[in-house]
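User: I've been trying to design a sequence by hand for this structure and keep getting stuck. Would you show me what you'd pick, starting by listing the structure so we're on the same page?

Assistant: Good idea, let's start from the same input. This is the structure you sent:
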């Protein structure tokens, strides 16, 4: 095919197994485990393929980004399916995906993330003991994206509708979700009135040298534990209390992201009785990056003389050269990128320099020929790219493949080679 991802399956699978094993070693024995994430474009590999690989890794839960991605993975993965995007009744675009779930054979396996009282109320309205709703409640972390503040969680867990659903077996709370930033958050101050704990004087101190992410997780773990300890159904009969206890059996679980293995070990040691479900996508699937090589097929080779024009924009060639027509364009994600997270002076200089070159009509392509990246003749087309090759450089022939340095989280391939 014109644009393909070549996978060294042995190396790549060894990398995924190494991540799984290191996570399990870090969190220690117990009910916690790795939770692979398959979302979006499936990190270039496709969500269905990642679901099969997650099953091969022997994990019990797979996370997807949205409800619309459930159908892509359900046939390949028989365990639990966590939806990371919070259930939001006001999101009318997602409503059809959630409605389709009600008739699916895997509906009982789905765990919803809930980050608002409105979302939880909407779920409870249609819940029953015959089809209980499984949820994780999300805490509002330093990511500041979705989640309950501690005071909001207190109100939610005291809500009579929630307590009735627990007593009836219509709701199962399966833990607290904490989505953490990649960069360490600012130091967590124990006397901060907005910090996630009830009583700073009683909350256990974090281990010496604990990172900001670890401090945040431990603070939330303390708060969550206090809230669960306070959740008692004193007005329920014995049978209802037993049902509620079963519905809360997994509630102490913490679902965490973006903790490295060292941080996981600190958290696991500090919380030996807490199950840690560790959501990982990029590090798991793209950790063995050298095992994944994108290549575009050379579809045509043209000799171009100085002064000749080519492409949609009919740009004039400044010197004799070879024009390569290579499979791979914007539809595949070639030359598409997210805004750069520049922070250093060097990164700013590089970004500024790239901008100046582009303003002059010059853009370095991600395609490499003879070990060197080559320049675009013009911006890439939808499915092919025009690449200039200086005269004298050995040119590939039609049918050859050339390497392409593409961002896999935004790439789409015509074929995946080597990973069946």
């Amino acid at each position: 095919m014109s644009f393909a991802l070549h996978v060294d399956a042995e190396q790549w699978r060894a990398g995924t197994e190494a991540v799984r094993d290191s996570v399990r070693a870090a969190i220690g024995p117990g009910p916690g485990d790795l939770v692979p994430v398959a979302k979006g474009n499936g990190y270039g590999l496709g969500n269905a393929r990642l679901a099969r690989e997650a099953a091969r890794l022997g994990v019990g839960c797979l996370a997807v980004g949205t409800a619309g991605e459930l159908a892509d993975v359900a046939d390949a993965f028989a365990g639990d399916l966590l939806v990371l995007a919070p259930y939001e009744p006001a999101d009318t675009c997602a409503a059809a995906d959630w409605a389709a779930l009600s008739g699916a054979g895997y509906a009982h396996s789905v765990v919803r993330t809930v980050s608002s009282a409105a979302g939880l109320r909407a779920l409870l309205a249609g819940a029953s003991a015959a089809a209980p709703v499984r949820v994780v409640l999300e805490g509002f972390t330093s990511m500041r994206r979705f989640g309950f503040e501690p005071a909001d969680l207190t109100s939610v867990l005291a809500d009579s509708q929630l307590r009735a659903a627990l007593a009836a077996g219509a709701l199962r709370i399966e833990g607290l979700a904490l989505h953490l930033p990649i960069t360490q958050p600012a130091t967590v101050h124990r006397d901060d009135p907005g910090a996630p704990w009830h009583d700073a004087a009683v909350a256990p101190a974090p281990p010496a040298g604990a990172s900001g992410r670890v401090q945040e997780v431990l603070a939330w773990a303390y708060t969550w534990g206090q809230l669960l300890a306070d959740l008692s159904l004193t007005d329920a009969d014995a049978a209802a209390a037993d049902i509620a206890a079963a519905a809360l059996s997994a509630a102490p679980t913490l679902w965490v992201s973006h903790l490295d293995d060292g941080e996981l070990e600190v958290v696991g040691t500090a919380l030996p009785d807490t199950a840690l479900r560790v959501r990982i996508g990029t590090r798991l699937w793209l950790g063995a990056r050298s095992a994944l090589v994108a290549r575009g097929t050379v579809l045509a080779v043209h000799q171009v003389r100085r002064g000749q024009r080519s492409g949609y924009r009919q740009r004039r060639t400044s010197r004799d050269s070879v024009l390569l027509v290579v499979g791979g364009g914007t539809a595949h994600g070639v030359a598409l990128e997210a805004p750069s997270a520049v922070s250093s002076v060097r990164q700013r200089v590089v970004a500024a320099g790239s901008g100046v070159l582009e303003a002059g009509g010059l853009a370095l392509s991600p395609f490499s020929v003879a070990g060197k990246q080559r320049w675009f003749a013009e911006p890439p087309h939808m499915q092919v790219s025009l690449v200039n090759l200086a005269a004298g450089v050995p040119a590939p022939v039609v049918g050859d493949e050339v390497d392409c340095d593409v961002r896999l989280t935004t790439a789409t391939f015509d074929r995946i080679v080597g990973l069946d």
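That's my pick for every position. To get oriented when you compare it with your attempt: Confidence is low (pLDDT under 50) at residues 197-201, 347-361. The chain has two domains: 31-285, 292-417.
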